[in-house]
Amino acid sequence: MRKYPETLIDIIANSEMNLNNISKISGVSNTYLTKLSKKQINHPGKDKIASILLAMNHRITDINNVLEDYDYRPLNKHDIPSILNNNRKRKIEGPPTPHYDRLYFELMLVVLEHMGGTKIVVKDSPSGIYQPYLYYMMKSFQIELDGEAEKFLYDLTGQVVRERLQVFNENCKKGHKITTYICSKCLDETIDRVISKAAAEKDMNKIQLFAQYLANATSCAIKFPNQHKLHVTERCSMFEFLLQDADGNKPALNYTGSSPHSFSNPYDQHNLEGFSTSSKSLINLFKVEVDMCSAAINYSDSRNTPEGFNSYIHDKFTKWKVAHFFEEAMNELMSTSKLKLF
After folding, report:
1. Computed over its alpha carbons, how large is the radius of gyration of the chain?
2. Residue ranges covered by each domain of the chain
3. Tens digits of per-residue pLDDT, 145-156?
4. Looking at CB atoms within 10 Å, which of 14, 74, 209, 215 has the fewest?
């Protein structure tokens, strides 16, 4: 029987993390990790290796190098179901767990979405969960060192995003609530930047998808005002975050760090994207931030009604001569009283 190298065991040992924490953030059982660390498992499963290293924020290229030590082929689309299954077993418990770049951030967002309950978002625009799949996938990706790893990164991210959107739809149908607090000035600047004349000359398709994103949020607010709430505030929180199951007994926080780079430079790897935690002290701190945003709502601002928000968005698109995109999207979504999203 072949004796495989102890590459994964060494990585775990050098991580300065205990097995219980690794189990929580990877979805791989503590029992399995204990056997692995005691060298009772000579040839760990491919999905176990991938899930453990993904939880530790390793690049796909690096994971493939480790897999090679165990005679596995590089990660491919057939590995995605087992990785996603492990991801669903992840837990957000205890002190902050950092996540880097885009893939690791998305994996954690799926875990949060599966928690359900009330979602509270503080952002510069409506929650990103309203974004259509194609628009969401236009975001930047971290650099991988070979084409095979790059393709797998895109495929896995796509499946993660699709799962998150599907669970969100299911939660909406169950009546789970979502409230978004949006800085007035940031909202203005974001919309003008995305649908400006320069943006239109660069990519008109992106503007159409952006219109669908805003139409998703606006139509939900009009049809389900007690479930989908959009608040425009006179206060900028200077950072974005999400509280999942905010009214439940075990809420979780996802804090989004700023991402000023587009990951077009190989030296920009592993930029901190933020962290997730169930720490009561941190969650209470962010709940105070929510209270401050709530206190900064100007109810005389028409945008703080669903119809007024709709008019505001339409006026913005009219200003930049692309109103037809928003009108077409709203007409389609409002053609039914049921939940419908692009």
Report:
1. 21
2. 1-91, 92-333
3. 788 899 999 999
4. 14
Question: In 3D, which of 84, 49, 64 has the Cα closest to residue 158?
Answer: 84
Our CA angle for 117, 122, 124, nearest 5°, is 135
Q: Which residues contact 269 (CB under 8 A, 6 or more apart)?
A: 59, 101, 142, 143, 263
Q: Render pLDDT for 68-83 as a digit per residue (tens, 0 to 9).
A: 999 999 999 999 999 9
Position 215, amino acid:
A
Distance CA(168)–CA(164), nearest Å, equals 6
Element housing 254 (H / E) = strand 252-256
Domains 1-91 and 92-333 share a fold: no
Cα gap 186→102, rounded to integer Å: 22
d(CA 259, CA 263): 9
CB 136 within 8 A of CB 106: no
CATH of 92-333, one of 2.60.120.10, 3.30.870.10, 3.30.390.50, 3.40.50.2020: 3.30.870.10
3-state secondary structure of 312: helix
CA gap 171, 178 in Å, rounded: 10
Burial class (CB in 10 A: 0-12, 13-18, 19+), 10: exposed
Helix 30-37 to helix 7-14 angle (10° resolution) is: 110
* pTM score, whole prediction: 0.89
Q: pLDDT digits over 213-246, tens only?
A: 999 999 999 999 999 999 999 998 878 899 999 9
How far is the CA of 271 from the CAs of 101, 109, 122, 277, in angstroms? 6, 17, 21, 19
d(CA 22, CA 36): 12
State whether residue 225 is helix, strand or coil.
Answer: coil
Give the torsion through C-alpha atoms of 206, 210, 212, 216, to 10 deg. Answer: 150
Query: Out of 2.60.40, 3.30.2310, 1.10.260, 1.10.357, which CATH number does the structure's domain 1-91 have?
Result: 1.10.260
Question: Which residues have CB under 8 Å from 331's CB, separation 6+?
Answer: none
